[in-house]
């Protein structure tokens, strides 16, 4: 699904994949709906966490 991306995505990359704005992506991360972590001031999102979020919203099986 995300073959063209590194294993860890930045917030702008994740927002681009989800086709939503940066503010909405921040909200998803802060609420825990989308799993990620902060490294300094920057959010990092694993490719698996992003794929799981998409699968969860589309009712497809999750990856672990």
Structural write-up:
With 64 residues, this protein is α+β, with helices and mostly antiparallel strands. 45% of the residues lie in helices and 17% in strands. It contains three helices and three strands. It has a three-stranded antiparallel β-sheet with strand order 1-3-2. β2 (37-39) and β3 form a beta hairpin. α1 crosses α2 (22-31). The chain starts with 7 loop residues before the first strand and ends in a 7-residue tail after the last helix.
Report the mean per-residue pLDDT as an integer: 92
Number of strands: 3
| Coarse morphology | globular
User: Main β-sheet, in a few words?
Assistant: 3 strands, antiparallel
Alpha plus pi helix count: 3
Radius of gyration: 11 Å
Order of strands side by side in the largest beta sheet?
A: 1-3-2
Residues in β-strands, percent: 15-25%
Enumerate the spans where pLDDT stays under 50 for 5 or more consecutive residues.
Answer: none
What distance separates the N and C termini?
15 Å
Kindly state the percentage of residues in helix. 40-55%
Order of helices and strands: EHHEEH
- Helix/sheet category: alpha+beta
Layout of helices and strands, plus pairs?
Blueprint: E1 8-10, H1 11-18, H2 22-31, E2 37-39, E3 42-46, H3 47-57
Antiparallel strand pairs: 1-3, 2-3
Helix pairs in contact: 1-2
Briefly characterize the structure.
Helices cover 45% and strands 17% of the residues. It is α+β, with helices and mostly antiparallel strands and 64 residues long. The chain has a three-stranded antiparallel beta sheet.
